[in-house]
Write a structure and sequence with these properties.
By secondary structure, the protein is mainly alpha-helical. It has helices at 3-32, 38-53, 70-95, 103-120, 127-143, 145-154, 158-181, 207-212, 217-234, 236-246, 248-253, 258-284, 296-306, 314-334, 341-354, 360-386; strands at residues 58-61, 65-68. It has 2 domains: 3-69 and 358-386, no CATH class; 71-325, ABC transporter involved in vitamin B12 uptake, BtuC (Orthogonal Bundle).
């Protein structure tokens, strides 16, 4: 199957899964909607869907009508920053067929290490956030060596190891914050304030974008998407990662250093998650106060699945998840529908993407059509040569 048809199939498969998830969500909204009659429930469902599907970028008012809200769009773009990085992290690791779930703990550790650098290491403005984020990413890359080496040396499941590692990271950070690093003068457990030189400034310094905390981290995230895509599809190491993901035995037989590539994929994925945590911390917060896993890593898994492990599609998937999350929050506020509905939508998306036979008939038709076109092209070339 050609690359264009493979991309088309991935997009169509994603859209169908999303559509089915939204239909399931609509049914659940209708069931949970308040109203004594069928018409009342239908009206409540319509209002809830309006908030979920259009509310993230439009404000509805009986007095002023419907108006575009730039602040809400900026909120969505800002929410995409950490999930783009975790989505890229998961894409790299999953492309090597390594089901490492450490992006969740990785983004928390990256944020924590970056915060400590922002507090205790004095550096000039401009250089400070760069160094802090790089150190945060490097710390997570180093930690990800543990599941990578255990996988390559002892064949320990990287999924189980990384899953447990998430909670080890969380509790170690909680211990350090509770016992050594917290600012005791504050009313809750949080670190000392970051140095002003470490802050990642907003893209546009006005009330709309500053209020949404849309920082230059968004531009860095898009740059990371491009670099990651070039690495995966235009470099020797990226090719090796993808080939090992497709057929590890064949890759080993052809002479590839399978163990080294597996370690590379998990270390690179850890660096991306850690850098994302650092950028989120310095772009949105003034001190470290995370007391639990933030959830960005789990969302990153959904994003990677939606993107089909294609880094170039990660921003679209991240936008969809951020848009849906914002819509569910608005739906819970204005239509009195549980915001946990997004978890159901994510679960349905997981279900259809995990089902290998979902739209397999359509994929088979595309494969057959590509094969027929190649045969016809070969016959035409043979005919021209004979003539």
């Amino acid at each position: 199957m050609t690359k264009q048809r493979q991309l088309r199939f991935t997009i169509i498969r994603s859209l169908v899964a999303i559509l089915i998830a939204l239909l399931v969500a609509t049914l659940l909204i209708f069931i949970s909607a308040s109203g004594a009659t069928f018409h009342d429930k239908l009206e409540a469902t319509r209002e809830a869907l309006k908030q979920m599907l259009a509310g993230p970028v439009f404000r509805f008012s009986k007095k002023n009508g419907t108006a575009f809200e730039a602040k809400r769009l900026a909120d969505i773009l800002a929410a995409m920053i950490p999930t783009i990085f975790t989505g890229l992290s998961v894409c790299v690791m999953f492309s090597a067929n390594q089901f490492n779930l450490g992006a969740e703990g990785g983004i928390m550790l990256g944020a924590f290490v970056t915060a400590m650098v922002a507090i205790y290491l004095p550096l000039p403005a401009g250089l400070h956030p760069v160094v802090a984020v790089l150190i945060g990413g490097a710390a997570v890359a180093l930690v990800m060596l543990l599941p990578a080496l255990l996988k390559t040396k002892l064949n320990v499941s990287e999924m189980v190891c990384s899953l447990m590692l998430n909670y080890i990271i969380m509790y170690v950070i909680k211990y350090l914050m509770n016992t050594h690093l917290a600012d005791k003068s504050r009313g809750q457990i949080m670190s000392y304030p970051f140095r002003e030189s470490s802050a990642i400034s907003p893209i546009i310094n006005n009330a709309v974008f500053s209020g949404a905390k849309l920082s230059w981290g968004f531009v860095v995230a898009i740059a990371a998407v491009i670099l990651c895509g070039l690495f995966m599809y235009r470099s020797r190491w990226g090719y090796a990662i993808r080939m090992i993901g497709i057929n590890q035995d064949f890759a080993k037989y052809s002479g590839m250093k399978v163990g080294a590539v597996i370690v590379l994929s998990q270390v690179l994925g850890g660096f991306l998650a850690g850098a994302g945590g650092g950028i989120e911390m310095l772009g949105r917060y003034t001190s470290f106060s995370w007391s639990a896993l933030p959830g960005y890593g789990w969302t990153g898994i959904t994003i990677a699945i939606l993107a089909g492990n294609n880094p170039y599609l990660v921003p679209l998937a991240a936008f969809f998840m951020a848009y849906l999350s914002k819509g569910c929050d608005l739906m819970a506020t204005y239509a009195k529908v549980p915001a946990q509905l997004i978890d159901i939508v994510q679960g349905v998306i997981f279900l259809f993407f995990a089902a290998e036979q979902f739209l397999s008939g359509y994929r088979q038709k595309l494969v057959v059509r590509s094969a027929q076109e190649e045969i016809e092209r070969a016959r035409a070339e043979g005919g021209r040569q004979n003539a």
